[in-house]
């Protein structure tokens, strides 16, 4: 059978491009993006290789909520990384995992706290909220809610150079970033440059708020935001109490899972490079 536009020279049978399986096709075909058991198993392997301790924060449901930290104390600027607080955002969870698998050497020498999948029930069931219908990313002022109290206890007294929360957005047409930072300091534009190898930047506003080249930057007015969105999100809590910069990175849910996962990996690569430069 011959393919191609009318009048064109047919390609030889052996060169049909669709017979060649690309990395992306292969990834998409074999992926099990909502398989929490597999995710936790791979995190335990990362922990063994990187000298991290795995702590179970909650073990009431089918899949536990876990956290990781350095087994031995490590000095230097700390990194707080979290994903999967919204269960219908799988690329965030897989991006963090694949990035960690690619960086086990670095994780041995970097002071780090990781929450790899904050809402495992949500990931299994592809739901933003937890099993009781709560948006955990509005509950960082309610320690009695789900794993929030255990997470806050896990980081009690800790200070981080940067806190990163990884997310996805169904309404986005590209990647974007919320950046909570001091006046005069901004990482966002550089970080999105790294991501652009995989995904374009989001164009337009987000929930009525105007972005500057994909970055929504805030240096003040946090109490008002908390009132407007009816609850304390992870990033504002981290910025107010634990981190000099808090970044919330979002990928567009309607794009290829492979691209979205790679975008999270590139974003984290950029953060790590930046933290390394700051630490010198
Ligand atoms: Zn989210």
Bound molecules: zinc ion
How many domains, in number, for the residues?
A: 1
Number of helices: 10
Average pLDDT level: 91
Please state how the strands of the largest beta sheet are arranged side by side: 1-2-4-3-5-10-6-9
Total number of beta strands: 10
The CATH H-level superfamily is Zn peptidases
Major pleated sheet: 8 strands, mixed
Q: Just name the CATH architecture.
A: 3-Layer(aba) Sandwich
Shape: globular
- Which CATH class applies here? Alpha Beta
For the termini, the CA-CA separation is 62 Å
Which structural class do the helices and strands define? alpha/beta
CATH topology: Aminopeptidase
Helix content: 25-40%
Taking all Cα atoms into account, the compactness measure Rg is: 20 Å
Describe the structure.
There is one protein chain. The protein is of the alpha/beta class and 280 residues long. The protein has one domain (18-279): Zn peptidases (Aminopeptidase). Helix content is 36%, strand content 20%. It is built from ten helices and ten strands. The chain has helices at 23-30, 36-50, 90-102, 104-109, 120-125, 148-154, 188-195, 222-228, 234-241, 257-279; strands spanning 52-58, 65-70, 79-83, 112-115, 160-169, 176-180, 205-206, 209-210, 215-218, 243-252. An eight-stranded mixed beta sheet has the order 1-2-4-3-5-10-6-9, with helices on both faces. A two-stranded antiparallel ribbon has the order 7-8. Mean pLDDT is 91; it is low at 1-16. Residues 86, 89, 167 line the site of zinc ion.
């Amino acid at each position: 059978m011959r393919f191609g536009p009318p009048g064109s020279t047919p390609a030889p049978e052996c060169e049909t491009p669709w017979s060649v399986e690309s990395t992306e096709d292969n990834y998409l075909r074999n992926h099990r993006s909502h398989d929490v058991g597999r995710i936790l198993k791979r995190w335990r392997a990362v922990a063994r290789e990187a000298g991290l301790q795995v702590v179970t924060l909650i073990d009431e449901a089918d899949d536990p909520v876990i956290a990781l930290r350095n087994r031995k104390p490590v000095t230097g600027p700390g990194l707080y990384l979290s994903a999967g607080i919204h269960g219908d955002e799988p690329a965030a969870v897989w991006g963090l995992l694949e990035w960690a698998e690619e960086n086990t050497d670095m994780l041995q020498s970097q002071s780090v706290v990781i929450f790899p999948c904050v809402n495992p029930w949500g990931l299994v069931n592809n739901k933003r909220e937890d099993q009781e219908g709560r948006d955990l990313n509005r509950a960082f002022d309610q320690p009695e809610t789900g794993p929030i109290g255990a997470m806050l206890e896990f980081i009690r007294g800790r200070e981080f150079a940067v806190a990163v929360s990884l997310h996805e957005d169904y309404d986005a047409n590209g990647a974007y970033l919320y950046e909570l930072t001091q006046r005069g300091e901004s990482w966002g534009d550089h970080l999105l440059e790294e991501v652009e190898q995989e995904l374009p930047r989001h164009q337009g506003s987000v929930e009525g708020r105007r972005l500057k080249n994909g970055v929504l930057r805030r240096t003040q007015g946090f109490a008002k935001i908390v009132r407007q969105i009816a609850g304390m999100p992870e990033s504002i809590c981290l910025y107010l109490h634990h981190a000099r910069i808090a970044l919330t990175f979002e990928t567009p849910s309607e794009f290829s899972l492979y691209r979205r996962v790679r975008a999270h990996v590139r974003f984290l690569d950029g953060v790590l490079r930046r933290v390394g430069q700051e630490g010198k």
